[in-house]
């Protein structure tokens, strides 16, 4: 297996020796060398045998949009089985086995993207000075052990954003987005994770050198779009104070065990940090998988990670969804079933006509869903176009393990749907109710939730309009039992964990919508420019024609025949003044000539006769 890496560097002489030391086992490291560098970066790179240097230059300084374009273009040309897409301060590796073994398993499962959980490390007061001749990870194993922290301070992003795609197949079908925290395209992400150490603040001297230079190089476009905000107004004093604040940070066990090659079960290490003995998302990494279907219209995006997590907990034999609409939630269930290789039958029930709450729509919504659903999931899933009540007779009592109710949300409708389908639930059935936290208009699901949760074990997520989980049968899963019994502190933690995962999807959709709108505006602007150019050319042509006509008129006005005509007109005006009888008789001559030329002699004589008769009759009427 051939494993490579791609990175971009500018003035990284202090950090590069550690980067090259950590990745010396890679077959190739493609380094995009920014020619604006002024330190010994290039000299260090030339000493590494597995480095391939490609010069590059970005006008305007540190610009994440141009940077990711360079990275994607390079990624798509690399001839390797897998490629690490890393920054110079990111050191990654599988937690329990060699990269070859880990990535070989991903090949077998047909995945093309692997994520890494990046721990933020700092110098501990007991740490020695860094030694570039030694492996880097063992030298810094203290820091923030909470991989999913949502604390965001000055000049510091929350830890959760560093659980990100970082290893990929070198295919043009996928593209990293600015910042390298999101990947788009035909993404088949593995539920397993690499672990890594993020060395942005690993040593005060290196942090000051790198971050102050990044601040000085920040492009104006980055500032406009909010990229690299951690560096915008950072100071040396803040960096030193932040490093001092972390001098007594705890040991990060995952990094310590990795560096000592004493691999234990990574999940148990994460579990040891919380009072939750059984409930551990790392046992169900399907919740980190990016969904294949994310439309711009669904209100369910922020619950998709939990939906996949729940499927792995329950391992249901049958899933039924009442109210599917665009199908984001339903396709998430189906994707989890497929990726977990479960023997599950899935059914989506909807009229696909809409209602007064969701809005009414035509057959195009179901057609769009089928185009996505059928090629992927039709071997175990059916889309049933009917009312919920009409579908009841097709399901035997006691057969549905997971029921998702997301139809018409008035109190009466929700209660009716729940009570009508309750007999269909199995002895260990679970019911999901969406929009439990909507308290407006005629939504009555909150009222129903407050009533029904008193009868069954339950848990509620309040983000994403609210999602209620009810165990209407015996709870077989230890983890689900623990979820229903969590103390308030742990409930807050698990809610925030799934909110952060879901919010990343919301951000992805928002970015996609903004990108689509931007493309539309660009297209409209291009069309307007083309139209403007066309009209400009037409105006220029008219002006040319006008100039030619004016010239012709001038020529005519100054010609001898025209001068004779004008002189004749002046004589006529002098001898036959306007309004006189002689002038009227004179004007009859050209009028008669026009009639003769255009209509013929017969018409001329008819009009003369009519005129004479008209005059005669007028004379007879006079007293």
Class inferred from helices and paired strands: alpha/beta
Helicity level: 40-55%
- Indicate the CATH class of the largest domain: Alpha Beta
How many whole angstroms does the radius of gyration measure? 39 Å
Largest sheet: 9 strands, mixed
- In total, the number of domains comes to 3
What is the strand tally? Answer: 20
Distance between the termini: 123 Å
Number of helices: 20
Give the DSSP E fraction (strand runs of 2 or more residues): 15-25%
Q: Could you please describe the fold and organization of this structure?
A:
It is built from 20 helices and 20 strands. It has 623 residues and is of the alpha/beta class. It folds into three domains: 3-271, Alpha-Beta Complex (Spore Coat Polysaccharide Biosynthesis Protein SpsA, Chain A); 283-516, Vaccinia Virus protein VP39 (Rossmann fold), CATH 3.40.50.150; 563-621, no CATH class. Strand 2, helix 2 (41-46) and strand 3 (51-56) form a beta-alpha-beta unit. The protein is flat.
């Amino acid at each position: 297996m051939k494993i490579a890496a791609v990175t971009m560097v500018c003035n990284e002489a202090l950090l590069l020796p550690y980067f090259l030391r950590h990745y010396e086992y890679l077959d190739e490291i493609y380094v995009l060398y920014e020619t604006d560098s002024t330190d010994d970066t290039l000299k260090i790179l030339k000493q590494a045998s597995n480095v391939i240097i490609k010069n590059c230059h970005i006008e305007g300084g540190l610009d994440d949009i141009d940077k990711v374009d360079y990275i994607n273009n390079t990624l798509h040309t690399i001839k390797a089985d897998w490629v690490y897409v890393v920054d110079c301060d990111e050191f990654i590796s599988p937690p329990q086995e060699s990269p070859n073994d880990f990535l070989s398993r991903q090949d077998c499962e047909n995945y093309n993207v692997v994520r890494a959980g990046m721990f933020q490390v700092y110098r501990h007061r007991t740490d020695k000075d860094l030694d570039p001749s030694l492996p880097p990870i063992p030298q810094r194993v203290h820091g923030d052990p909470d991989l999913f922290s949502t604390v965001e301070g000055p000049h510091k992003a929350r830890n959760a954003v560093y659980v990100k795609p970082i290893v990929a197949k070198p295919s043009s079908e996928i593209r990293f987005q600015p910042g390298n925290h999101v990947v788009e395209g035909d993404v088949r992400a593995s539920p397993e994770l690499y672990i890594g150490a993020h060395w942005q603040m690993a040593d005060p001297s290196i942090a000051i050198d790198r971050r102050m230079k990044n601040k000085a190089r920040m492009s104006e476009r980055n500032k406009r779009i909010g990229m690299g905000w951690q560096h915008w107004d950072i100071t040396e004093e803040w960096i030193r104070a932040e490093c001092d604040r972390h001098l007594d940070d705890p040991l990060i066990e995952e990094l310590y065990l990795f560096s000592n090659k004493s691999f234990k079960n990574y999940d148990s290490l994460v579990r040891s940090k919380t009072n939750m003995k059984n409930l551990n998302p790392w046992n169900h990494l399907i919740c980190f998988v990016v969904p294949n279907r994310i439309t711009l219209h669904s209100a369910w995006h922020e619950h998709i990670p939990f939906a996949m997590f729940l499927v792995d907990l329950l391992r249901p034999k049958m899933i039924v969804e009442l109210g599917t609409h665009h199908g984001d939630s339903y396709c998430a269930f189906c994707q989890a079933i497929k990726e977990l290789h479960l023997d599950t039958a899935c059914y989506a029930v909807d009229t696909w006509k809409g209602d007064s709450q969701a809005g009414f729509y035509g057959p195009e919504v179901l057609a769009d869903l089928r185009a996505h659903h059928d090629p992927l999931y039709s071997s175990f899933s059916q889309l049933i176009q009917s009312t919920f009540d009409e579908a009841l007779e097709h399901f035997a009592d006691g057969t549905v393990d997971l029921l998702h109710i997301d139809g018409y949300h008035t109190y009466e409708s929700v209660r009716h749907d729940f009570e009508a389908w309750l007999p269909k639930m199995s002895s260990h059935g679970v019911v999901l109710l969406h929009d439990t936290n909507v308290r407006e208009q005629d939504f009555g699901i909150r009222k129903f939730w407050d009533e029904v949760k008193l009868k069954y074990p339950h848990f509620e997520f309040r983000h994403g309009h609210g999602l209620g989980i009810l165990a209407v049968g015996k709870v077989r899963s230890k983890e689900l039992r623990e979820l229903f019994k969590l103390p308030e502190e742990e409930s807050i933690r698990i809610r925030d964990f799934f909110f952060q995962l879901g919010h990343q999807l919301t951000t992805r959709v928002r970015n996609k919508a903004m990108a689509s709108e931007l493309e539309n505006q660009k297209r409209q602007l291009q069309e307007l420019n083309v139209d403007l150019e066309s009209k400009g050319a037409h105006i220029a042509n008219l002006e040319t024609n006008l100039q030619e006509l004016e010239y012709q008129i001038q020529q005519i006005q100054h010609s001898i025949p025209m001068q004779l005509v004008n002189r004749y007109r002046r004589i006529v005006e002098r001898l036959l003044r306007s309004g006189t009888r002689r002038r009227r008789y004179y004007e009859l001559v050209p009028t008669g000539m026009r009639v003769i030329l255009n209509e013929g002699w017969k018409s001329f004589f008819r009009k003369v006769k009519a005129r004479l008769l008209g005059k005669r009759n007028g004379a007879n009427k006079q007293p």
